Every structure is written in C-alpha cells, then in structure tokens.
C-alpha cells in the first residue's frame, strides 16, 4: 500500500490461424522462455521482456494463473481499485482471452477449459465471497465507448449516450449508469452476455466480429462492516471497504486501410485510433520518472478519463498484450510490443 508498483504487463501470442497457415505466412514471433520474446523477420530482429509470456500452447487456465489475475481479485476484495486491459490488433485474441469463445448459448455451453479471464475471476470472487459469509456485496456495471460516446450496455431500451462528469471526491465518473447486484455465477455471466450482445461489432477485412467499441465491465466489491457493538459504530471503527475490478476490452488497433473500411466504419476506426493514441500518450508520459512528469492529458479522450484512476496512481493494473505471430501482421505486432514495453515502466501508488 502506498508503495510504487509497476504495471504488470504480460504477453499472449495466439496460434497461427488456418487461413494464415494455408496462405503460407511465416511465424515471426518466438517465445524464449522466462518472459522474453523474440521477433525475427527481414530487417527486424528484436527481443522484448515482459512479466510473463504465454505462447500458442498456453491454456486459458495457464493465462489466468500466470498473469496474476487471482491476486487482482483478492486485492479488489481488500478495497483496491484493480484494472485489467487487453489490447492489440483486431483478431489477435483480446476478447477470447477475456471472455473465451463468444458463441455461448443455452444449447451449447462453452467448455469450462475455454472460459476466459472474466469468468474465472467471477468464480474466484464468488468463492472468496462465500468463504467470508454474507459480508461482501457485489454489483456490476458495463459500458462501451463508441465513437467517443459512452453507452450503458445493461440498461434496458436502446442505448443512449451518458454524460461523463468530474468531481473532487470521485474523479471522473459516468452519470446515471446502471449498477446491477448479483450473487451467483449464472447472474453475472448472463449480465456479461447480455451486455456483449449489445456491443457494437462489425465485420471488416481483418475480423468477422470485430469489436468496434472499447468495453468496460466493472465489478464493485463492497465489504459490509462488522460492528461488534454500537459503541464501535459511534467511534467510527471498521468502515466497509470498497474495491473495484474493471475489465477493459479495447477495440482493435489497426490502420484504416487494412480493414478496408469506408464511410461510417472508417469514422469508427479513426475514433478508436484517436482514443488508443491518447491512451498511448498518457502511458508514455506516465512511464517517465515521477520527478520529470509533466501534465498527463487524461482529458484527451473519454477512455483515458475513465482509466485515469487505474493508470494515474491509485490503482493496480494488469495489461495483457495480445499479438499474432504471423509475418503478415509484423508491423502491428511490433507496435503492440513497443506499446507494451513502454507500459512496463509506468509506476502507480495503490
């Protein structure tokens, strides 16, 4: 607590897809073990280091246990604000890492081995909650940022834009967002699915179901205070703790020409790239030593405003960078790796 902690950055390299193998793409990313990864292609020969690297063979379980996700859940219960980001180019496996395969339905439930970081964290959170009796109150809110508008994915009716406000005590917050209490795994998974189905996705050249918005699912963990006697209550002892666990699925970063987008789609791609640039800019400035830091421009985008707390000091953040090993994605892969290495230098004081 109050100690400087670095952002924890882990890397996940997905397997080559059937299309890539058929096309004869080369595998240009190789894991060297011990958190290091090597990129070797014509004119490029670079090694990057991370807290952990998960290669194509790593199971969803291995990513959950090896990324430090379980500790984040425990810290959220202890009252810290915790955030996990997945970022990388479209089709690099962000949504799969966070949620597992999305084709979940009642008739065809997903195999437990394929569940992503979110469902595993919910299970872990509910187990902890049960072991503590009834003193944890859990609720969830789910937002998307689409074309720089914030929309509530849980409130009934057509999604409408919500205002983002700032207050001295709360920092940036979204006005009128719905927060839904839950007590079981079924309830939170159904909220997740309901919200995910309302997210803006569209098909383009790189991905059939590309997420065209940044989505933020926040779990609020309130531990109810224990009061052995009313005397303690008056003395103000044992206040309840409030932690949050926020999952951020960033929209894919890629050049507009690669997606073959035009019209509304290219507007989407531009606003996605603008907010990712703003995030990258904040991360670069935060990566400087504390004494040399200038003003951090969180106000440049809605995304950076909402993430100001987790990036700028009082939170604990895990970043999962997702990349494709294909030679065809080399430039995007390198930019994700550079972005992720920069993020490793950011320190916060939770």
Automatic annotation (TrEMBL):
Binding site for ATP: 88-95
Keyword entries, A-Z: ATP-binding, Cytoplasm, Cytoskeleton, Microtubule, Motor protein, Nucleotide-binding
Name recorded for this polypeptide: Kinesin-like protein
Subcellular location: Cytoplasm, Cytoskeleton
CDD domains in the cross-refs: KISc
Pfam families attached to this UniProt entry: Kinesin
GO MF terms held by the record: ATP binding; microtubule binding; microtubule motor activity
InterPro entries the record matches: Kinesin-like_fam, Kinesin_motor_CS, Kinesin_motor_dom, Kinesin_motor_dom_sf, P-loop_NTPase
SMART domains linked to this entry: KISc
A GO CC term attached to the entry: microtubule
Family that this chain belongs to: Belongs to the TRAFAC class myosin-kinesin ATPase superfamily. Kinesin family.
């Amino acid at each position: 607590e109050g100690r400087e902690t670095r952002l924890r950055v882990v890397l996940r390299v997905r397997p080559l897809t059937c299309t890539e193998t058929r096309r004869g793409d080369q595998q240009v990313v190789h894991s060297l073990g011990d958190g290091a990864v090597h990129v070797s292609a014509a004119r490029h020969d670079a090694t990057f280091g991370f807290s952990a690297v998960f290669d194509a063979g790593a199971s969803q379980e291995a990513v959950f246990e090896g990324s430090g996700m379980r500790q984040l859940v425990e810290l959220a219960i202890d009252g810290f604000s915790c955030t996990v980001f997945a970022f990388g180019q479209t089709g690099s496996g962000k949504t799969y890492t966070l949620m597992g395969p999305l084709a979940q339905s009642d008739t065809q439930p997903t195999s437990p081995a394929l569940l992503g970081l979110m469902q595993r964290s919910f299970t872990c959170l509910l187990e902890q909650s049960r072991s503590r009796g009834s003193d944890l109150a859990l609720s969830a809110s789910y937002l998307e940022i689409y074309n720089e508008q914030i929309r509530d994915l849980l409130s009934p009716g057509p999604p409408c834009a919500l205002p983002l406000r700032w207050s001295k005590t709360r920092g940036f917050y979204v006005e009128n967002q719905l927060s839904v209490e839950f007590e079981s795994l079924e309830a939170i998974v159904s909220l997740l699915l309901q919200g995910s189905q309302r997210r803006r996705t569209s098909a383009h050249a790189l991905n059939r179901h590309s997420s065209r918005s940044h989505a933020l699912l926040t779990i609020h963990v309130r531990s109810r205070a224990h009061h052995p006697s009313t005397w303690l209550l008056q003395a103000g002892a044992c206040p309840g703790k409030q932690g949050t666990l926020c999952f951020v699925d960033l929209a894919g970063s890629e050049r507009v020409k690669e997606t073959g987008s035009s019209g509304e789609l290219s507007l989407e791609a531009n606003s996605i790239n603008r907010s990712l640039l703003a995030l990258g800019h904040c991360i670069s400035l935060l990566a400087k030593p504390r004494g040399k830091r200038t003003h951090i421009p969180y106000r440049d985008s809605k995304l950076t405003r909402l993430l100001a707390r987790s990036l700028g000091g009082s939170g604990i953040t895990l970043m999962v960078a997702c990349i494709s090993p294909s030679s065809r994605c080399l430039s995007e892969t390198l930019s994700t790796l550079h972005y992720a290495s920069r993020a490793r230098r950011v320190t916060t004081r939770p």
